[in-house]
Write a structure and sequence with these properties.
Blueprint (H helix, E strand, L loop, with lengths): L7 E5 H15 L3 E4 L1 H5 L3 H9 L4 E6 L2 H6 L9 E3 L16 E5 L2 H6 L6 E4 L13 H8 L3 E6 L2 H10 L7 E5 L18 H4 L3 E6 L2 E4 L13 E5 L10 E5 L2 E8 L4 E4 L9 E5 L5 H8 L3 H8 L5 E4 L1
Parallel strand pairs: 1-16, 2-3, 3-4, 4-5, 5-6, 6-7, 7-8
Antiparallel strand pairs: 1-9, 9-15, 10-11, 11-14, 12-13, 12-15, 13-14
The structure holds pyridoxal-5'-phosphate.
The site of pyridoxal-5'-phosphate has 12 residues, from α8.
Amino acid sequence: MPPNFAPSVQVSLPRICAAALAIHAQTRVPLIAVVKANAYGLGARRIARALADLPCVEGFYTLTLAEALAADLPSTGKPTLALEPTPSANPDDYLPHHVRPSVWTTDVAAALARAHPVLSLDTGMQRFAAPTDQVDAIVKAGDLHEAMTHATRLDHVEQLQRATHAHPGLKLHAAGSALLNEPRAYLHATRPGVSLYRQALTVTAPLYQARDSATPAGYTGFVTPRHGLILAGYQHGLRPGPCLVNSRPSRLLEVGMQTSFVELDPGDKVGDPVTLVSPDLPPDTLAPVWRCGPHEVLLRLSAAAPITYTE
Ligand SMILES: *Cc1c(COP(=O)(O)O)cnc(C)c1O
């Protein structure tokens, strides 16, 4: 067999479970684990299976019913809350799968009442959510027991609390990862996504070439005393910026469609590992350099190769 220089993608299920336990230890309320977008690319099916074993994970959140079914979430035995931008009006589309739709109009709330829908309240996001003055009507129409908002600031949480004040029996949740350091946002549950995954993804590629050089190289004509090449590029989600070579901080000097140049030290040689993301080079470190969020880093790099899971 020829040597394999392809990138490899690893997802640590124990690290995801550890993140969930740490969030629970901090917040002391149950988690609704956000596994939308195939768990930000890391694989909703396997991750949901692992998380479902934790008593602190009360259920899952996806954008759609179809996502919940594709990831086989019903077989975890825990319920899924699906935002459902284009809801079916038939509760029997949800009930057998333990999927609860969110609702933001009286009509849909009434039609889906048997499926135990959750009120989605608009506190600033201005999408998939009801205006705060509709709470009474929608709660009545759907006989609702739960309400949520997509909060990014504490005042969004406070609006949810104010708007549902007349319905003290409602279970409330608002906080995603952005508000996990804000105890007043915890309410009855949290809905973390990226904080479950930021320490879980490792993508590496072995050095395909390593050479000393005194002349301009690559498309851009960069000059560096020693550089290497990996067989991963834009196609694998990469952008120029930080990387690790033999666990030491380095950088991708130039990214091409399927290859990238790496800055090397004198001892680095063919076959040595180049780390593109890992717990030591987390998405939050790459994100500002890439001018995007950690969510996008996870989605891009997790698609670099088929995922191997560590149990
Ligand atoms: C995506 C999402 C979350 C999780 O957001 P993170 O920033 O990844 O924690 C929580 N709630 C809703 C409604 C979402 O769509």
